[in-house]
Amino acid sequence: MGQTNNNISSYGAKDIQVLEGLEAVRRRPGMYVGGTDIKALHHLVYEIVDNSIDEALAGVCDRIIVTIHEDSSVTVEDNGRGIPVDLHPEKKVSALELVMTTLHAGGKFGSGGYKVSGGLHGVGSSAVNALSEWCRVEVKRDGHIYMQEYRRGIAQAPVSVIGECDPQLTGTTNSFKFDKQIFTEDIDFRFETLVTRFREMAFVTRKVKIQLNDERAGKQITFYFDGGIISFVRYINRSRENLHPVFFVEKEIDGISVEAALQYTDSYTESVYSFANTINTIDGGTHMTGLRSAITRVVNDYARRNTLIKENDPNFSGDDTREGLTAIISVKVTDPQFESQTKVKLMNPEVQTAVQQVVAEAYATFLEENPNAGKAIIQKCLTSARARDAARKARDLVIRKSALESMTLPGKLADCSSRNPEQSELYIVEGDSAGGSAKQGRDRQFQAILPLRGKILNTERARLDKILSSDEIKALISALGVGIGDNFDLSHLRYHRVIIMTDADVDGSHIRTLLLTFFFRYMQQVIDGGHLYIAQPPLYLISHKNQKRYAYTETDREEIIKEMGIDPGKVNLQRYKGLGEMNPEQLWETTMNPENRTLLKVSVEDAAQADRTFDMLMGQAVPPRTRFIQTHAHAVQNLDV
């Protein structure tokens, strides 16, 4: 112990670093916006829009315009009160500069500025400013237009007056360009991602107009909903058969405002979304727990009181009472506690009690007053309980069978020689011809191939017991090694990269959507763990004399022909309709070789989008399906991207 080691670095007061101003945000973006990936990039926009929504919640803003410019800079404009610009009494600097350049400064802490807000830590605007190459804020207030500009979080000059305006006009316009020094990946804003978020915001903030303009593609969309979350439930169920009118309750209890809307449909899945101060809490939290327990309790009480279930039958489980349920729970809390800065889970314990009380009381009354709805819901729960029992038996059978077969892998699986899951990959391919090319072209050391014949079972219209009887699904579950349902265990995943490789045509797209939906519904942890990918096979082989290049998109094709400097008429173009058309060497070179290939990592958001699309394509309701297929026929290969 007495040995001295001259290599030990010193650790004294001089080694304690104090990160000045916004340097902390630039050094640790993960703590403030969740990282530097595409999700974090969109989070920048949400932080600024959340500030405008807070103004709307305070009743002083009814219009928000978000514009993505051609250079991918973003402008968010609202007609709220405008960020204050007068000097802060203690800091002796303009309040605007303070909000934009100081962490934990904002109007959300005291009790004066906002009764309810999504802003929590006061790091929103300043974090966005810190992670932007440049930022510019204009404020309309008291008949003047004030402005300040920043570079990487540093104010370039004091706040100045740049013009006059009608004293009745107020609002804030915040423009920023994300910093490529921080967001180093080749990423950009996705119109669809923003559309989904703003549609949700408009649903849960009634009578606020949210407009999104995308100057890169000349697109524009505006959201405005009078009906709030009732409209939201109707929107989600637009292609499903509903069992009763939408139930809605709105009540404030102990300073917590609770809004809930729900409706049962003929679907087999649960679509429940939770919001706290208009922020989509994707990991749920205390408000979601309150909603679920209220529904289960009320449904069981109603069934018992009206003798709709036999005396000896057990109560419905939570899963039984949520099959086919579409519900939105939206709470507004004065002092929200979230699990992290990215606000994905609400933690306030008092919210659970408030939601339970409000929903249970109103929902019990609703069922008593609407006996037809009550009967239909109980019938749905009974069917679900029976099917769940059948599924359990089917699952036990599958497990017993695989135990008897001593966990033998499916015959069609061409396994890899590596036994290290971290190095191993599984390619799920459609059909035998593609499977053949993939088996010959792969690197046997770490790449396994599982060919699936035809379209796997439509998991939207089938329950787990039926799904488990499908040979294709059984082969997939068996190859992955993680089990399914209650027996699911991600630590047994045999391949840390599971890659869906389908043809670039309508059928291939359909199968990809089916697989994504299956993973989303029954193996979401595989997606959460970052293990699910989509392969990107090329669309064209472009050859001229001794030059050969692969194009993965139409734009790629045009650019490559231009780069090769040849007359488009003289180019030899081969379009690959399917993977089976490529010889094994070509498939390896373009789609399977880690040196050259492009893989798209699937996020839960992508899978949820596929799930929604799938619901529309495969659900019972025919008119929206027909309309969707007609209007999207030209883009059908991009259903799940």
End-to-end separation in angstroms reads: 59 Å
Quickly give the structural class: alpha+beta
- Reported by name, the CATH topology of the largest domain is Heat Shock Protein 90
Strand content: 15-25%
What is the mean predicted local confidence, pLDDT?
83
The domain tally reads 4
- The strand count comes to 22
Helical run tally: 20
Looking at the overall shape, the CATH architecture of the largest domain is 2-Layer Sandwich
Global geometry: flat
Mind summarizing the main beta sheet?
9 strands, mixed
Helix content: 25-40%
Q: pLDDT under 50 segments (min length 5)? A: 1-12, 15-19, 108-112, 403-407, 620-641
Radius of gyration: 28 Å
CATH superfamily of the largest domain: Histidine kinase-like ATPase, C-terminal domain
Which class of the largest domain in CATH terms? Alpha Beta
